[in-house]
TrEMBL record:
GO terms for cellular component: membrane. It comes from Nocardia fluminea. The chain crosses the membrane at residues 20-39, 46-62, 68-84, 96-129, 141-162. This is histidine kinase. Residues 187-252 form the Signal transduction histidine kinase subgroup 3 dimerisation and phosphoacceptor domain.
Length: 387
């Protein structure tokens, strides 16, 4: 019977549990105040239930409106001290239950009410006890004021502590949202770079193959030539659309990938693939590519890949030379192409190739230089640390 009830009990809010506990405490205090009222004061059986309720039930306001509960309890205490005659063996103006309820409500007022209301409740409670309790004729007022002031101050300090914790929780939520937003931006930047480095590279190879096919294949009829031209135009259009998508995905402050896939050792295979696709490329490798760290190796791979794609787009048919040298503490990459008489196709520019390479290189502490050569070609030179 109890096992199925446990999940339901865990689903009840803490506020509801607090209300249940408050009602239970109020009933217990009422059950104490009613029978003992005949001992502490001279009352009739008719008024005893109402007077006991005034002593115990104001505690029900401790969460919903502690200031109202305090006002009812303090007014009832003043009524007790003025209108009721204490019993023969009692010298207190009101019951101990009443005192407990006043203490609890004053603490709740300090915990939740506005500061002016806290000051009024503290001053009125101090005055009430100082003028009605035994020895009030000779006892100093400041004694009660200090006692209730300590209680109110403690409640106010707890209030500040709880407010600080809530503020900290809200700040942590904001920080978590910002962290999630930053992670999304980083992922978008990673997708943009990979899209450009992978898809655009292979699309450029399609353009190269389509443009060089009439020169590589003999006896090509006009219809086939037109088909190859159509393939090249379609591929260029696709590249422009990819760049439009990259404009949405790319963002500032891009960070390097956390799990790179290609390595520096894959550069020869990349060059061989471009050569099979029709790009006139040759390459030289000096040093051990396997010794290049993964993060730096990824940058080397992407720089070579993007540089060859740029050559294919802006200088179709021109010879391309790739040189990679691994030295102690440094790896250098140089990609340059010869001049070409072919006029670049309209819309061939406007990509993110150089910017993407520069972002990757700077992220690992390297340097990139990209500029036209004196012979009319273009050269990309990169130096990257390997430690």
């Amino acid at each position: 019977m109890t096992a199925p009830l446990r999940p339901a009990a865990r689903g009840i809010p803490a506020r509801t549990w607090f209300d249940f506990a408050t009602v239970l405490v109020a009933l217990i205090l009422y059950s104490i105040a009613w029978p003992t009222l005949f001992v502490t004061h001279e009352v009739s059986p008719v008024t005893a239930p109402l007077l006991s309720a005034l002593a115990a039930f104001p505690i029900l306001f401790v969460r919903v409106n502690p200031a109202l509960g305090w006002a009812i309890s303090a007014g009832a205490a003043l009524l007790f001290s003025i209108g009721l005659q204490p019993g023969a063996d009692n010298d207190l103006p009101f019951q101990v239950v009443h005192v407990i309820v006043l203490f609890v409500l004053l603490f709740a007022v300090a915990l939740r009410a506005a500061v002016p209301i806290v000051v009024v409740a503290w001053a009125a409670t101090s005055m009430l006890f100082a003028t009605t309790m035994p020895g009030s004729d000779t006892g100093p007022l400041w004694g009660w004021a200090m006692g209730f002031g300590a209680l109110a101050l403690f409640g106010y300090l707890v209030r500040i502590l709880l407010a600080s914790r809530r503020k900290l929780e809200r700040q942590e939520e904001v920080t978590e949202l910002e962290r999630a937003r930053r992670a999304i931006l980083e992922e978008k930047a990673r997708i943009a770079r990979d899209l450009h480095d992978v898809v655009a590279h292979h699309m450029s190879m399609v353009v190269v193959q389509a443009q060089t096919a009439p020169y590589r294949i003999d006896d090509l009829d006009p219809a086939s030539r037109a088909e190859f031209e159509s393939i090249g135009a379609t591929a260029r259009t696709a590249l422009n659309e990819i760049r439009g998508l990259l404009g949405v995905l790319r963002s500032d402050g891009q960070l390097p990938e956390h799990a790179p896939q290609p390595r520096a050792a894959d550069v020869p295979a990349l060059c061989a693939s471009a050569l099979r696709a029709g790009l006139p490329v040759d390459w030289t490798v000096t040093g051990d590519l396997e010794s290049v760290p993964e993060t730096t190796g990824l940058v080397v791979y992407r720089v070579v890949q993007e540089s060859m794609a740029n050559c294919a787009r802006h200088a179709p048919g021109a010879a391309v030379h790739v040189a990679v040298a691994v030295d102690p503490g440094e790896v250098s990459v140089t990609v340059h192409n010869a001049a070409t008489a072919t006029v670049p196709q309209p819309g061939a520019g406007g990509g993110h190739g150089i910017d993407g390479m520069r972002t990757r290189v700077v992220a690992v502490g390297g340097e990139l230089h990209a500029a036209p050569t004196l012979s009319g070609g273009f050269e990309v030179s990169v130096k990257l640390p390997t430690h």
